[in-house]
Amino acid sequence: MKRIFICLLFVWLYFPVFSQVFTYQYTYDASGNRLSRAVINMKSTGGESIFDQDTRSLRDDFEPREQLDDEISGMKVILYPNPTRGELVLQIMQLSSPATGSITVIDLNGKMIYQTLQIEEYNDIDLENIPAGEYILKLVMNQQEQVYKILKK
Q: 119 in helix, strand or coil?
Protein backbone atom coordinates (compact mmCIF):
# COMPACT_ATOMS: atom_id res chain seq x y z
CA MET A 1 0.00 0.00 0.00
CA LYS A 2 2.85 2.34 0.84
CA ARG A 3 4.47 1.68 -2.58
CA ILE A 4 1.24 2.48 -4.40
CA PHE A 5 0.91 5.74 -2.49
CA ILE A 6 4.51 6.71 -3.29
CA CYS A 7 4.02 5.82 -6.98
CA LEU A 8 0.82 7.87 -7.19
CA LEU A 9 2.49 10.80 -5.45
CA PHE A 10 5.43 10.61 -7.87
CA VAL A 11 3.12 10.52 -10.92
CA TRP A 12 1.06 13.40 -9.51
CA LEU A 13 4.17 15.55 -9.03
CA TYR A 14 5.93 14.39 -12.21
CA PHE A 15 3.05 14.85 -14.70
CA PRO A 16 2.64 18.67 -14.58
CA VAL A 17 6.37 19.18 -15.16
CA PHE A 18 6.28 17.48 -18.56
CA SER A 19 2.77 18.28 -19.71
CA GLN A 20 2.12 20.66 -22.60
CA VAL A 21 0.95 24.17 -21.90
CA PHE A 22 -1.39 25.79 -24.40
CA THR A 23 -2.13 29.48 -24.74
CA TYR A 24 -4.86 30.87 -26.96
CA GLN A 25 -4.84 34.17 -28.81
CA TYR A 26 -8.04 35.50 -30.42
CA THR A 27 -8.76 38.19 -33.02
CA TYR A 28 -12.11 39.97 -33.27
CA ASP A 29 -13.92 42.20 -35.75
CA ALA A 30 -15.39 45.61 -34.87
CA SER A 31 -18.68 44.06 -33.68
CA GLY A 32 -16.98 41.74 -31.25
CA ASN A 33 -17.31 38.54 -33.26
CA ARG A 34 -14.31 36.24 -33.06
CA LEU A 35 -12.56 35.84 -36.42
CA SER A 36 -9.68 33.53 -35.59
CA ARG A 37 -8.01 31.61 -32.81
CA ALA A 38 -4.28 30.92 -32.54
CA VAL A 39 -3.28 27.97 -30.38
CA ILE A 40 0.21 28.52 -29.05
CA ASN A 41 1.82 25.31 -27.83
CA MET A 42 4.69 25.92 -25.43
CA LYS A 43 6.86 22.85 -24.85
CA SER A 44 9.80 22.88 -22.51
CA THR A 45 12.95 21.21 -23.85
CA GLY A 46 16.02 21.83 -21.76
CA GLY A 47 14.91 25.26 -20.60
CA GLU A 48 14.04 26.52 -24.10
CA SER A 49 10.52 27.31 -25.24
CA ILE A 50 9.24 26.26 -28.61
CA PHE A 51 6.14 28.05 -29.94
CA ASP A 52 3.93 26.25 -32.45
CA GLN A 53 0.90 28.10 -33.78
CA ASP A 54 -2.23 26.49 -35.15
CA THR A 55 -4.64 29.13 -36.49
CA ARG A 56 -8.23 28.33 -37.37
CA SER A 57 -10.93 30.58 -38.80
CA LEU A 58 -13.96 30.76 -36.51
CA ARG A 59 -16.34 33.16 -38.26
CA ASP A 60 -19.43 31.10 -37.37
CA ASP A 61 -18.39 30.54 -33.74
CA PHE A 62 -19.38 33.45 -31.50
CA GLU A 63 -17.43 33.67 -28.28
CA PRO A 64 -17.53 37.24 -26.96
CA ARG A 65 -14.79 38.97 -25.08
CA GLU A 66 -15.02 40.99 -21.91
CA GLN A 67 -14.99 44.46 -23.53
CA LEU A 68 -15.96 45.56 -27.02
CA ASP A 69 -14.45 48.68 -28.61
CA ASP A 70 -16.05 50.25 -31.70
CA GLU A 71 -16.75 53.61 -33.31
CA ILE A 72 -19.94 55.36 -34.42
CA SER A 73 -20.28 58.94 -35.73
CA GLY A 74 -16.58 59.51 -35.04
CA MET A 75 -16.98 58.66 -31.34
CA LYS A 76 -15.46 55.67 -29.57
CA VAL A 77 -17.99 53.17 -28.20
CA ILE A 78 -17.09 50.78 -25.38
CA LEU A 79 -19.49 48.00 -24.40
CA TYR A 80 -18.73 45.91 -21.31
CA PRO A 81 -18.88 43.34 -19.79
CA ASN A 82 -19.79 40.93 -22.56
CA PRO A 83 -20.76 38.29 -21.51
CA THR A 84 -22.76 39.91 -18.72
CA ARG A 85 -24.48 38.57 -15.65
CA GLY A 86 -26.90 41.48 -15.37
CA GLU A 87 -25.69 45.03 -15.88
CA LEU A 88 -24.25 46.10 -19.22
CA VAL A 89 -22.47 49.44 -19.70
CA LEU A 90 -22.45 51.27 -23.03
CA GLN A 91 -19.93 54.11 -22.88
CA ILE A 92 -19.63 56.68 -25.66
CA MET A 93 -16.44 58.71 -25.41
CA GLN A 94 -16.34 62.43 -26.29
CA LEU A 95 -20.10 62.81 -26.01
CA SER A 96 -20.53 66.32 -24.60
CA SER A 97 -24.31 66.30 -24.14
CA PRO A 98 -27.08 63.71 -24.39
CA ALA A 99 -27.53 62.68 -28.01
CA THR A 100 -30.68 61.81 -29.88
CA GLY A 101 -31.03 58.27 -31.02
CA SER A 102 -31.84 54.99 -29.36
CA ILE A 103 -30.41 51.99 -27.58
CA THR A 104 -32.52 48.88 -28.06
CA VAL A 105 -31.98 45.33 -26.80
CA ILE A 106 -33.99 42.58 -28.48
CA ASP A 107 -33.97 38.81 -28.10
CA LEU A 108 -33.41 36.47 -31.04
CA ASN A 109 -37.18 36.19 -31.57
CA GLY A 110 -37.47 39.96 -32.13
CA LYS A 111 -39.06 40.80 -28.77
CA MET A 112 -37.90 44.16 -27.40
CA ILE A 113 -36.29 43.74 -23.96
CA TYR A 114 -34.99 47.29 -23.33
CA GLN A 115 -35.16 50.65 -25.08
CA THR A 116 -34.11 54.21 -24.33
CA LEU A 117 -34.32 57.22 -26.61
CA GLN A 118 -31.75 59.33 -24.77
CA ILE A 119 -28.08 58.45 -25.18
CA GLU A 120 -25.57 59.67 -22.60
CA GLU A 121 -21.84 59.18 -22.13
CA TYR A 122 -22.47 56.30 -19.66
CA ASN A 123 -25.54 54.15 -20.34
CA ASP A 124 -26.33 51.45 -17.78
CA ILE A 125 -28.50 48.71 -19.26
CA ASP A 126 -30.18 46.43 -16.71
CA LEU A 127 -30.47 42.86 -18.01
CA GLU A 128 -30.76 41.28 -14.55
CA ASN A 129 -34.33 39.98 -14.94
CA ILE A 130 -34.02 38.35 -18.36
CA PRO A 131 -33.08 34.72 -18.97
CA ALA A 132 -29.60 33.67 -20.04
CA GLY A 133 -29.03 33.62 -23.80
CA GLU A 134 -27.97 35.69 -26.80
CA TYR A 135 -29.42 39.15 -27.41
CA ILE A 136 -28.96 41.93 -29.96
CA LEU A 137 -28.11 45.49 -28.91
CA LYS A 138 -28.87 48.11 -31.56
CA LEU A 139 -27.34 51.56 -31.17
CA VAL A 140 -28.73 54.33 -33.42
CA MET A 141 -26.99 57.69 -33.15
CA ASN A 142 -26.78 60.61 -35.61
CA GLN A 143 -28.60 58.52 -38.24
CA GLN A 144 -25.95 55.76 -38.03
CA GLU A 145 -26.69 52.28 -36.74
CA GLN A 146 -24.47 49.67 -35.06
CA VAL A 147 -25.56 46.19 -33.98
CA TYR A 148 -23.81 44.12 -31.30
CA LYS A 149 -24.28 40.57 -30.02
CA ILE A 150 -24.71 40.36 -26.26
CA LEU A 151 -24.42 37.18 -24.22
CA LYS A 152 -26.31 37.03 -20.91
CA LYS A 153 -25.03 34.33 -18.56
A: strand
CA distance 24 to 76: 27
Question: Can you tell me the distance from the alpha carbon of 35 to that of 54, in angstroms, rounded to the nearest whole number?
Answer: 14
Is a pLDDT exceeding 70 seen at residue 63? no
**What pTM does this model have?**
0.56
For residue 12, is it within any domain?
A: no
Its domain, for residue 115, covers 68-152
> Model confidence over 90-118: pLDDT tens digits?
998 888 777 888 999 999 999 999 999 98
Q: Residue 123 belongs to a domain with what CATH number?
A: 2.60.40.3080
In 3D space, the residue among 132, 39, 126, 43 whose CA is nearest the CA of residue 89 turns out to be 126
Nearest Cα neighbor of 42 from 17, 19, 15, 22 is: 22
